[in-house]
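Need a sequence for this fold. Nothing fancy.
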């Protein structure tokens, strides 16, 4: 690993990907993203986690995404305000006091920490 060369062009990245395959974490992330994309297409709702500090979109949120209340996004009600924006998403699970979905990441890639995988 000491002599590893970082690809510097899109063609070099593609060549390395073709030769060695995708990393395990990247494969898991793409499978997860694909599930969320299919769900977004069928529901007509597309939700992304947006980092206001860095001004970037981090990851797609779908019904399989987990909240800190330990329930999925699919268990949270999606409230649409008059201005067509989303309001708070309270948990609909019986007995849960969560008043708004708070994304809990599962993998470092979901928050841009690719170097940890």
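Here you go.
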């Amino acid at each position: 690993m000491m002599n590893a060369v970082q690809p510097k062009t899109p063609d070099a990245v593609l060549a390395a990907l073709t030769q060695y395959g995708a990393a395990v974490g990247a494969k898991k992330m793409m499978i997860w993203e694909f599930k969320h994309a299919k769900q977004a297409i069928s529901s007509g709702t597309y939700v992304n986690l947006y980092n206001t500090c860095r001004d970037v979109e981090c990851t797609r949120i779908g019904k399989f995404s987990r909240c800190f209340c330990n329930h999925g996004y699919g268990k949270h009600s999606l409230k649409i305000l008059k201005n067509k924006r989303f309001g708070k998403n309270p948990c609909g699970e019986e007995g849960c006091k969560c008043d708004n979905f708070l994304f809990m990441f599962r993998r470092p890639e979901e928050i841009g920490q690719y170097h940890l995988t």
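For context: The two ends are 15 Å apart (CA to CA).
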